[in-house]
């Protein structure tokens, strides 16, 4: 299973400006497996998992001398740690916060050493100890994107077709139909590596669905690790109710039960830090950067993975295989969440990326743009239509109010087309918006996994 992040890891390995690397992302998105696979390109890899090997934690608590630390870790692992030849992998590093601080001194005193740290709840530790500014780099991981799914399922030839397709021309109908079918498979299986691996191995979707429920249980069990005891009930309520609100502006009053904003807001922050949900903030979108015009009180939420979200809702995911056309028409919120998930995957991996939407503020006339994205140094409004399309009144209104923008983009099940200032692309082509670095990573998926 080939991941986009592998391309970035290779670039990091070869860079003379290399810094110790933090791999950040939610539980079970494939961080540990990917790093171990990457470690095979070194003479050897020394892995320390601080949850399994608590006795290694004191090594970082005596002092932060990197030479002493390497000597003790080498003795403990019974392997030489040779800068330039060994990958030092510190896993579940949130259990040893001093190890995060030590990364700074690895950079300053042993810069030739390749060292990577990761952890399922890493961001909670970073909030406590901070990141050594300018001394450590971050690389963000998400569930597999649709392009990665195509590669993993032996359909990598379609990646090149999508990335190189001329948007002025329709996709051949047979290819368009095939890609929508494959997209339906992705909507059912989702992007969690274990669920995809089970699907590839067995071609039995029910086995993948079992994995999804297992992941859901694990996420809920993690609540005890990062929340206060009185917050658990709020997290449970949000976890089960946020999927019903995908595609809508989040309002605390819509959460069932006698809950207040002051009780729920910190729990939304916790779920965001754990990588379970991603907020989509409102922006005025008058120019770049989009984050400079944010209204933090207006936001929407999506789950990290569309299949996990649907499983929580109790949807019959097998319907995506049996009647995908009907599912695309009836599940607009899933299509909207999918586009957000893809935009995050296809943005720059070495920075924390954010999602934005736009809504008309006048009460007399409602209008909303699903996503406002930065593309080629310009503001790009994006509408998502799960079925064949629509009149796009909101898009036309937005473009009238932002006359300098060249065009708006619609994603739907329709083929490629262009009309006036509206470009239409199929839902499977969100990767066409990938950042140039991510495009290089996507192109690396052409080769057979």
TrEMBL record:
User: What's a Pfam family this protein contains?
Assistant: AAA_14
Instruction: Please report the name of this protein according to its UniProt entry.
Output: AAA+ ATPase domain-containing protein
Residue ranges of domain AAA in the record: 18-150
Start and end residues of each DUF4143 domain: 221-387
Question: What is the species of this protein?
Answer: Candidatus Neptunichlamydia vexilliferae
- Top-level taxon of the source organism: Bacteria
Q: Which residues form a coiled coil?
A: none
Q: Which InterPro entries match?
A: AAA_14, DUF4143, P-loop_NTPase
């Amino acid at each position: 299973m080939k991941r986009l992040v592998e391309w970035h890891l290779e670039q990091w390995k070869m860079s003379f400006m290399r810094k110790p690397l933090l791999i950040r992302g939610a539980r079970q998105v494939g961080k540990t497996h990917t790093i171990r696979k990457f470690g095979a390109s070194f003479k050897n890899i020394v892995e320390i998992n601080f949850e399994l090997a608590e006795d290694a934690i004191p090594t970082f608590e005596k002092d932060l001398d990197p030479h002493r630390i390497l000597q003790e870790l080498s003795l403990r692992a019974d392997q030489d740690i040779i800068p330039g030849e060994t990958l030092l992998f510190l896993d579940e590093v949130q259990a040893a916060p001093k190890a995060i601080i030590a990364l700074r001194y690895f950079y300053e005193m042993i810069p030739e050493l390749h060292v990577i740290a990761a952890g399922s709840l890493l961001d909670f530790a970073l909030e406590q100890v901070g990141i050594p500014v300018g001394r450590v780099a971050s690389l963000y991981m998400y569930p597999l994107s649709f392009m990665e799914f195509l590669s993993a399922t032996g359909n990598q030839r379609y990646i090149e077709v999508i990335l190189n397709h001329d948007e002025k021309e329709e996709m051949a109908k047979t290819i368009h139909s095939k890609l929508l079918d494959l997209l339906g498979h992705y909507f059912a299986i989702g992007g969690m590596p274990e669920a995809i691996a089970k699907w590839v191995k067995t071609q039995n979707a029910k086995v993948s669905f079992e994995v999804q429920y297992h992941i859901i249980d694990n996420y809920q069990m993690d609540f005890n690790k990062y929340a206060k005891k009185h917050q658990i009930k709020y997290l449970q309520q949000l976890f089960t109710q946020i999927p019903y609100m995908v595609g809508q502006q989040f309002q605390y009053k819509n959460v069932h039960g006698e809950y207040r904003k002051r009780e729920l807001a910190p729990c939304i922050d916790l779920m965001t830090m754990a990588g379970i949900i991603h907020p989509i903030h409102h922006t005025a979108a008058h120019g770049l950067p989009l984050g400079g015009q944010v209204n933090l009180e207006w936001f929407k939420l999506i789950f990290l993975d569309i299949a996990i979200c649907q499983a929580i809702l109790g949807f019959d995911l097998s319907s995506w295989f049996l009647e995908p056309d009907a599912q695309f028409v009836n599940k607009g919120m899933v299509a909207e969440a999918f586009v957000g998930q893809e935009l995050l995957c296809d943005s720059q991996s070495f920075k924390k990326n954010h999602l934005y939407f736009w809504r008309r503020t006048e009460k007399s006339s409602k209008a909303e743009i699903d996503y406002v994205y930065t593309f080629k140094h310009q503001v790009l409004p994006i509408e998502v239509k799960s079925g064949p399309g629509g009149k796009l009144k909101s898009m036309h209104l937005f473009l009238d109010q932002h006359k300098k923008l060249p065009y708006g983009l619609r994603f739907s099940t329709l083929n490629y087309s262009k009309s006036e200032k509206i470009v239409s692309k199929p839902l499977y082509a969100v990767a066409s918006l990938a950042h140039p670095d991510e495009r290089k990573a996507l192109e690396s998926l052409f080769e057979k996994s």
